[in-house]
Amino acid sequence: MMNKKRWRNYALWVSIVSQVLLLIQLIGHLTGLFDLTDVMKQNILTIVDVFLGLLVTLGIISNPTKPDSGGYNL
């Protein structure tokens, strides 16, 4: 059932990357490898917001120009 088109889905890769980052954050917090202050969290969140905004503006995350796709498939 797994086909190549599923792996070429933008939403899938955005979801996988976000889940991996959350897992890294959880492991770091539980093991004490790194502790982020509230200021550091806000700075990181701002950087991520700007980066995602740039991707949306460039049409990388959502590509509605393909008539046969729902906006996320290549």
UniProtKB/TrEMBL annotation:
Chain segments annotated as transmembrane: 12-32, 44-61
Originating organism: Paenibacillus lutimineralis
Keywords: Membrane, Transmembrane, Transmembrane helix
A Pfam match: Phage_holin_1
Name of protein: Phage holin
InterPro entries in the record: Phage-like_holin
